[in-house]
Amino acid sequence: GGGAGESAAAAGGVTALQSQVEQALRVSDLEASEEVLRQQLAAMQAELDRRESQVAFDHQMHPGLVELEHTTLMPTESFGPVKVPELEYEDFLLVVAIMLMLLIFAVPFMTPWHRFCEIRRHKVMPFLAILNFAILAYTLDRLYMVSFNTMFFGSVRAFEIFIGSTESLLTGCVALVGLFVAWRFKDRILAFIGIEHGALLVGDFRDWATCWSMKRFHAMEIYILKVEGLPSVKITGENNVFCEASLGYNMEMRTRVHNGAGHRCVFKESFQLNFDPWDTDSRLYISVKNQGLISEEISSVQIGAAKVRKLEEKPMQKGTLGWGATSASSSARSDQSAWDPKRFTAFDMVPAGTLYLRFVSVAQEEESASFFECCCGCLFGGSRRAQGTAVSDTALLTAQH
After folding, report:
1. Closest by alpha carbon to 125, among 138, 133, 95, 98?
2. Beta strands in 216-264 (DSSP E)
3. What are 265's strand-pairing partners?
4. Using CA atoms, how far apart are residues 161 and 143, in angstroms rounded to an integer?
5. Distance CA 245, CA 301 (A)
6. Residue 378 pLDDT more than 70?
């Protein structure tokens, strides 16, 4: 029983010792935490003292400086209930000053002072320059958020933006001019590449606006009576003359070659072309050439669509076609003859020569128009037109023979 009591007493002593150790540890932790708090408080106090000393130094160096208890992000200028940022307000004042300077520079050119300053500009302009410089200096001195450096670098940035915008504008203008030149000379460019009749490939505004319809064209027959006053291509031989005509989308039409015609040639030939009377861009180009190893142009003439439309005659009543006009029944010297010289118009050629031409509209056969022919006349109704024309031509030739 005595040993058990001693064991219990020893256990109670150990427990008491553990509790004392734990209490001592708690006290040491509290003291360490308190020491850390003391150090942080001392650092904050030192920072506060440093700031107070800095404020006192600023007040000593700048007596007019007033500490504001409540401030905004940027200074503002009040106009009654409206508050405007100070920087925008000063920028506005600077712009007004610059406009005033420009107005002062423009005063000698205005009507009331123009006569007085016209002969004294060498004296007036330096005075105005000094006055404007004084106005600019005073304005910059009164503005505390805008300085000369700010104005200078702002002007440099504005000039840089202007140069960049001008460069972009000029680049766009050059591109547009290039496209315009390429469009205007598209036929020559395509011909240089090797594409003949490039207009058929590209077309123009009328073609796209009418969906490539042929309704705006009508057949026209060109009569070539004769040509006179041609210069000689070769000194040793006479000209072997033939005519070549081109108009718009039509293929080049040629007459037969008249061997040894010389300076004067009677053709009495005709051919038909599709003609748009309102196409002011296309021109009828007729050239008189000399046949050889390489055909050489002797003379040429260009006739506008308006001139051709003015000279164009109504369809012939008997519908004489091509070489049929040279038959015995129609070649008599009378007012009804297709080759009566009175019906022809003389055109001066370049560089020399005179060409006699006559323009006659060809009567079209009446036909029923297709529903889609207004926009796609080349796709619908074309075969019917060809058949009707073929029958009419055959009947006419039979009647003539």
Report:
1. 133
2. 218-228, 241-246, 253-254
3. 227
4. 25
5. 10
6. no
pLDDT of residue 332: 47
Q: Which amino acid is at 276?
A: D
Structure tokens, 330: 């129609």
Cα–Cα distance for residue pair 267/286, rounded to 1 Å: 14
Per-residue pLDDT tens digits for 301-335: 999 888 998 998 888 765 455 544 554 444 445 55
**Residue 73 is encoded by which pair of tokens?**
């992000």
Closest CA to 99 of 136, 66, 70: 136
CB 255 within 8 A of CB 224: yes
The whole-number pLDDT of residue 385 equals 42
Q: Would the pTM of this model clear 0.70, i.e. be above it?
A: no
Q: Residue 331's pLDDT is what?
A: 46
**Element holding 290 (H helix, E strand):** strand 283-290
- Contact at 8 Å (CB) between 121 and 108? yes
List residues bridging with 139 in a β-sheet. none
Query: pLDDT exceeding 70 applies to what percent of the chain?
Result: 71
| Structure tokens belonging to residue 348 | 């001066």
Burial of 202 (0-12, 13-18, 19+ CB in 10 A): middle
Determine contact, residues 280/307, Cβ cutoff 8 Å: no
Sign of the CA dihedral 106, 110, 113, 117?
Answer: positive
- The H or E element that residue 363 is part of is none
Q: Smallest Cα–Cα separation from 356: which of 365, 348, 364, 366?
A: 348
Residue 226 vs residues 194, 263, 276, 315, 397: alpha-carbon distances, Å: 34, 11, 25, 22, 25
Contact between 255 and 295 under an 8 Å Cβ cutoff? The reply is no
Assigned token pair, 355: 């060409």
Token output for 143: 């503005």
Inform me whether the pLDDT recorded for 137 exceeds 70: yes
Full DSSP string of 12-67? HHHHHHHHHHHHHHHHHHHHHHHHHHHHHHHHHHHHHHHHHHHHHHHHHH-TT---
User: What would the pLDDT profile of 218-240 be if each residue is shown by its tens digit?
Assistant: 889 999 999 999 998 887 788 89
Rg of the chain over all Cα atoms, to the nearest angstrom = 51
Token pair, residue 346, equals: 């003389």
Of residues 187 and 94, the one with the higher pLDDT is: 94
